[in-house]
């Protein structure tokens, strides 16, 4: 029979980590030997991050607020919509938003706006796959019509040119994925205007604050569609008419792949031999130890190119999630 609790000790206080077992970056096999034991020395010896010690407080058996009288959570009211409050954090915002908690977060007071920000993972492929199929077909027709069958790309045949443009779109997305995550999602808003703080929290800060909220792990389709339209408009100024739809279909395919991988890295259980095993370790390091590194989600190639890669330690025993 499965245990309903997973108790550990920390500084003579009791913590129930049952809900955290599936999310622990070190996997269940590294954590389970410490059931009913004091984890303080182990956390120090294994260089647990400041975020890890902060997150531990949320599992205190005396209640979430029992051990938080002297920390940042007293600056906000979790029973109220959070977006309206974060602007008042000022210079405390950056430390607060990178100090994770295991809770569900309400962003807006308005019911309609709130539900536009909550997205089950399966909604994303359900919406974007038909759009990608339609754009791919449209892109092929448009390419044939506007290029008049000419070999327009590196002297390739029309069929190879079509495939190449589509793949080029995927590559463009991968660079956008890195660039948006690094230079937009991870701007340093503390000390700036409230508008910058609101913007940062709405687009990405909330994910670092509540990384285990399953409702907020994929990008909501409505704002994603707005961003997609803006990028299509920008692409139209620099890309040939006969290639833009194909490239855009490839970019959307890259985006969909990224969003699904991101969800899986949080809630999947990749095996050691899987491509996603190291990616999950990598992304966990970004969340809980190195907020200024590891901006790649579906690939680490751009981190390596731009010098922001996280260097993972070799493990004696593979992690089991």
UniProtKB/TrEMBL annotation:
Its EC number is 1.-.-.-. Its main location: endoplasmic reticulum. It comes from the Eukaryota. Heme binds at residues 24, 48. Its cofactor is Zn(2+); Fe cation. One of its GO terms (molecular function) is iron ion binding. It is a multi-pass membrane protein. GO terms for biological process: fatty acid biosynthetic process. InterPro entries: Cyt_B5-like_heme/steroid-bd, Cyt_B5-like_heme/steroid_sf, Cyt_B5_heme-BS, Fatty_acid_hydroxylase, Scs7. This is Fatty acid 2-hydroxylase. Binds 2 Zn(2+) ions per subunit that likely form a catalytic dimetal center. The chain crosses the membrane at residues 116-136, 156-176, 217-238, 244-265. The keyword Translocase does not apply. It comes from Hypothenemus hampei (Coffee berry borer). Pathway: Sphingolipid metabolism; Lipid metabolism. It is found in: Endoplasmic reticulum membrane. SUPFAM superfamilies: Cytochrome b5-like heme/steroid binding domain (SSF55856). Belongs to the sterol desaturase family. SCS7 subfamily. Keywords: Endoplasmic reticulum, Fatty acid biosynthesis, Fatty acid metabolism, Heme, Iron, Lipid biosynthesis, Lipid metabolism, Membrane, Metal-binding, Oxidoreductase, Transmembrane, Transmembrane helix, Zinc. Zn(2+) binds at residues 181, 186, 204, 207-208, 262, 266, 283, 286-287. It is an enzyme of class 1 (oxidoreductase). GO terms for cellular component: endoplasmic reticulum membrane. Residues 1-59 form the Cytochrome b5 heme-binding domain. Plays an essential role in the synthesis of galactosphingolipids of the myelin sheath. Responsible for the synthesis of sphingolipids and glycosphingolipids involved in the formation of epidermal lamellar bodies critical for skin permeability barrier.
